[in-house]
Design brief:
The protein is of the alpha+beta class and 155 residues long. It is built from 5 helices and 5 strands; from the N terminus they run ββαβββαααα. The structure holds FE2/S2 (inorganic) cluster (2 copies).
Length: 155
């Protein structure tokens, strides 16, 4: 099966029963977290052809020919993505287990909506369970990143 992860091409044999989560972690993308293995928590979210999916209930074989982005792909050059920087700046990362999935949801949101309201951000995070933050700081982080990204676009 051939597919790309963070612009790296893979051409490998895949267990027919494997989930995309299993496959990505087998390939070393440990930023993709297994929180529930049941499609409920969003910790395993990745982008598949620019759409956020829960990789634990996405069959690995369905990724044939697709372009996958994991949290590792948000900072290819080592400099943080504006969303990652904003999460750190606002204190939105506590234990951090939910953070990769939240970042993926946020990337998808800002792709379509560069100036989301608080309720739109909360709606975008509805599939991401977080036990630590109460969501206030992640929402603040996403709006801060959105503002910074709009500023860069206007420069
Ligand atoms: S591990 Fe996939 S949704 Fe929880
Ligand atoms: S920061 Fe701990 S689960 Fe969200």
């Amino acid at each position: 099966m051939r597919f790309t992860v963070n612009d790296q091409v893979f051409d490998i044999d895949v267990d027919p029963g494997a989930s995309l989560l299993d496959l990505l972690r087998r390939l070393g993308f440990y930023g993709v977290k297994n929180g529930c293995d049941n499609g409920d928590c969003g910790a395993c979210a990745v982008l598949v052809d620019a759409r956020s999916v829960t990789s634990c209930d996405y069959p690995a074989r369905a990724a044939e020919g697709k372009r996958i982005v994991t949290v590792e792909g948000l900072a290819p050059s080592g400099s943080l993505h504006p969303l990652q920087a904003a999460f750190l700046d606002t204190g939105a990362v506590q234990c951090g287990f939910c953070t990769p999935g939240m970042l993926i949801s946020a990337v998808e949101l800002l792709e379509h909506n560069p100036d989301p309201s608080e309720s739109e951000v909360r709606e975008a995070l509805r599939g991401n369970l977080c036990r630590c933050t109460g969501y206030t700081k992640p929402v603040e982080a996403i709006q801060l990143a959105a503002a910074r990204m709009r500023e860069v676009d206007h420069d």
